[in-house]
Amino acid sequence: MQGAEIERLVQLLAKLPGLGPRSAKRAVLQLLKKKETLLRPLADAMLKAAEAVHECPTCGNLDTASPCHFCTDPKRDDTVICVVEDVADLWALERVIEYRGRFHVLGGVLSALDGVGPEDLRVSGLVTRAKDARVREVILATSATVDGQTTAHYVVDRLASCDVSVTRLAHGVPVGGELDYLDEGTLNTALKARRPLDQT
C-alpha cells in the first residue's frame, strides 16, 4: 500500500500514452529515487511549460511564442500548407528535412463515435489561410484510418472554393497507420509521392 501522494503520481502517469499502471509505477519509483536530479527538475520544467506553452492562433501548434516559430519563420515556404490531425503529427513531419512549408493542425478527426463534428476542428481557419493568394498547395496528411479518410474528404470539400491544389500523402503510409509512429524514410517517401485529390 502506497501513500496517497505516490498513488496520485502513478494514476496521473498511467494516463500518458504508452504507460499503463505497471509502467507508471516503475517511472514513479525512478523519479522518487532521484528526487534532486530528476523529480524536482521535472516538476519545475512541467510547471514552467504549463505556464508558458500556448496554442498557436494561426496553425494550432503548441509553442511558447504566439504565433509559433513555424508560422513566423521567414525561411519557410508560404506557398504550401501541410494539414495534420495533431501536434504530434506536425512534430513527426518536421523530422523530414525536405519539407519546409507551413503547417495547420486540425485538432483531431471527424468521428461520430467520439462525438467530434466539423465544428470541433480547425477547418474554417484552414480555409481562411488557403484563400491567401500566396498559397498554392494544401497537403492533407491525415492518418490512413477511416476517420482520417473521412476528415480528408470533408476538408477537400471545404477547400473547393479556394484556388489551391489539394494533395494527399501517398505511398509509404500504411492503411490504419498514424504519422507519429512512422520513421523519417517512410514519411519522406510519402511526401514525395503525394498526389492530387479530386475536388468534384
What do these coordinates show?
With 200 residues, the chain is an alpha/beta fold. The chain has two domains: 4-52, RecR Domain 1 (Helicase, Ruva Protein, domain 3, Orthogonal Bundle); 62-196, Dna Topoisomerase Vi A Subunit, Chain: A, domain 2, CATH 3.40.1360. Helix content is 42%, strand content 14%. It has eight helices and seven strands; from the N terminus they run H-H-H-E-E-H-E-H-E-H-E-H-E-H-E. The strands form two sheets. It has a five-stranded mixed sheet with strand order 4-3-5-6-7. Helix 1 (4-14) packs across helix 2 (21-33). It starts with a helix and ends with a strand. The model has no long low-confidence stretch (mean pLDDT 90).
Identify low-pLDDT runs. Answer: none
Q: Averaging pLDDT over every residue, what do you get?
A: 90
Topology order in helix (H) and strand (E) letters? HHHEEHEHEHEHEHE
Radius of gyration: 20 Å
The fraction of residues assigned to DSSP E strands is 5-15%
Overall SS class = alpha/beta
**Integer tally of domains:** 2
**CATH fold group of the largest domain:** Dna Topoisomerase Vi A Subunit, Chain: A, domain 2
What's the total count of β strands? 7
Trace the largest sheet across and list its strands: 4-3-5-6-7
* Distance, first to last CA: 62 Å
Q: Number of DSSP helices?
A: 8
CATH architecture of the largest domain: 3-Layer(aba) Sandwich
Instruction: Give the CATH level 1 class of the largest domain.
Output: Alpha Beta
* Overall helicity: 40-55%
The shape, in one word, is elongated
What does the main sheet amount to?
A: 5 strands, mixed
